[in-house]
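Example record used in the benchmark description.
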Amino acid sequence: MVESIATSVIDKALEAVLRKVSEGKKLSTEDLVVLMLGLFREIRNDIANTNKRIDTLYEMMSRNYEALNSRINEVNDSLIKKIDEINKRIDMINDTLSRRIEDLSKLLGKIYEALIKQATTQRQ
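Model output (structure tokens):
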């Protein structure tokens, strides 16, 4: 309430001083003080408006940061899932190749034994 009364008083005094300025009259020290109070009030309003804009920008940046962070996490999770799938495929291929190599080794062992047996049989 006191602030609204002070604002009203400053407004009235400022109107009177501005009338003096428009009429080209000389300003007193009190008039200059009133002009400074009006100027300070305008600066205070500008600062308050700037703070509101900064708060709005900060909130917007926070939302954008959260959205970006969420998207990065989604992409990361997707990549991890794909890497896991590829690792499983590699493991399956490795197991298949290992079995085939074992089978081939057994087959080569049997062929070798058969050749040895045949060579032994032919020598006798």
